[in-house]
């Protein structure tokens, strides 16, 4: 079995990142797609700003054609927040939601990535699960799924809470995005990860960093990720754990870091691919990969 890697949006965005201005990459979409494909990736992620740009410059149907021509078969779109709220915040979220679902439908997206409450307000499991189920229902109607990413700086801070949410929602089109970064920073154990039912996993993301957090958790997550093998995470153990519960991909590669952003994408994207594949190369005898 071969491995399909998906380059998350920030892995290909060059000098752009979450909460760092308008989030628009200084590099053109076609350039990013071509470099991503040539590096070996078979999946690619797009943030809201990318998709608006694509709609306005070339049209979403043409974006899909370009992806297909370049052999990109797995697409991720992101990012939706405030989907559980009401009032003005929900009105803004609903506009984003409508467009992300439109893009997901046109592009045949594997999933739409969503987050929880970074304001750290109280966590009402039943209320959030009800809204998550509605969100997943709408996603299924356009042929995609919802992947919620638990993050230590949100009110869904760890695997336990995220799993409780998706289990309570109990919708086949809604599940977890499991990012090794947030697994490590939330002190989630691989033993806990090994107990997650495969049907609750929508996406998986790989990256690396120092074992200890540097600075506050949000700063750490957007400034200090590095390609696989350049940090101290137990990436092989993470891959083995997900493989053993039945995950077969696509495997996301999400590198968000100040140093990485400042490397030309012609170098950064191939490095992201090659460094991740090296982790799989050492596991061939264990997993039977080809």
Structure commentary:
With 290 residues, this protein is α/β, with parallel strands linked by helices. The chain has a single domain, classed as Divalent-metal-dependent TIM barrel enzymes (TIM Barrel). Helices cover 47% and strands 13% of the residues. The chain contains 14 helices and eight strands. Helix 5 links the parallel strand 3 and strand 4. The longest helix is centred in the middle third of the chain and has 21 residues. The termini are close together.
Any idea of the CATH class?
Answer: Alpha Beta
Name the overall outline.
globular
Number of domains: 1
Return the structural class: alpha/beta
Helix count, DSSP H or I runs of 4 or more residues: 14
Content of β-strand: 5-15%
CA-CA gap between termini: 5 Å
* Rg (C-alpha, Å): 18 Å
Read across the widest sheet, the strand sequence of neighbours is 1-2-3-4-5-6-7-8
What order do the helices and strands follow? Answer: EHHEHHEHEHEHEHHEHHEHHH
Pfam families: AP_endonuc_2
InterPro entries: IolE/XylAMocC-like, Xyl_isomerase-like_sf, Xyl_isomerase-like_TIM-brl
